[in-house]
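Protocol step 4 of 5: obtain the predicted structure for the target chain.
Materials: sequence only (see below). No template structures provided, no constraints applied. The aim of this step is simply to have a reference model before the mutagenesis design in step 5. Sequence pasted as it appears in the construct record:
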Amino acid sequence: MVFLGHNVRMSGSQTQTEPEFGHSRPPRFRAAESVARALEGWFPRHRRKLPWRENRSPWRTLVSELMLQQTQVSRVEERFESFLGLFPDARAMTEAGEDAVVAAWEGLGYYRRARLLHAAAVRICEVHGGLVPDSIDALLALPGVGRYTAGSIASIAFGLRAPIVDGNVIRVVARLEAVDATADDPSLVARCWDRSEAMVEVATSPGVLNEALMELGATVCTPAAPACDRCPIRRECAAFKTEDPSAIPRPKRRPVRQEVHLHTVVLRRGDRVLLRQRPPEGIWAGLWELPSLEDVARLDLPAIESGFDFRIVDLRPLETFKRLLTHRAVHFHVYEGSTRIRRGHWCDQSAASGLAMAKPMRSLMDRRVWR
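Step 4 output (structure tokens):
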């Protein structure tokens, strides 16, 4: 199966465009067969024992791939089985509803993925009778599934000859051919899709090969201090012959973080506090929080008191802290105040525990509200 042209991969909250090869397709990958054979022989003996590799099913593979986008393996490993216990198949997830999926996703970050996973489950039920589809085109039509995710599911769950490219694969291929480029250089990404396709076409087991490529990048061909002495393809690797294999590829440019100031107010009524749902777009979209005002700078007390659509009085500061996200530095300025308002969602600890919140907000409430 040939994958050329312009493709879009959803990764966390970002959309990445995979460039087309056009007339600049790289030279033929002559080492494709030897590399594929070496990796397929290496993987069964050296793979990590991860929950989504046990009791395999297309649904478990789909869920794991969405979870692993922009989230560390160790965190997903901790949460995977409990999450699948709540949503063992697409129909169970559809019937539970989006809010339940987002709440169960708490702590994994990039909550848009939870909504996309639920939307994919709905489509699987409506179009495919509750079963994850086994064709590339049908997988690509699922919300949140781009070229990489479709290739991973197709090869691992169904044995199709579909290539994959993620950060680990880019690093492995760049070092194999000692490509002098940044990891996000479009020409390098295009070369990696070409090389991945060449290898999967000659593989005995496409799924094993693709998992081996990712595993090699995650455990051996790491960004810093690669363990070249343990690499099964070092004889084919051009970077291995250089003085510093870790210098390939060159690192991506670090994103410039936007400074955000979140002014959060604790408002009590007996054993309940007022909670609000964030807007459907932007940071922590759709999650629940204590009433908050967002600004590019810190606001003074009169601006905070007058910034809500209801009156707040007796405002006093509690604490200030900062959390770093990929693209934002969020400064939390926490206050306690009083209000006579009765409308809105006044929740006790039990009710609040069932609402999806960003991890910093949940930690703040545990520390300041339910003390």
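Step 4 remarks: The longest helix spans residues 112-128. Confidence is low (pLDDT under 50) at residues 1-23.
Proceed to step 5.
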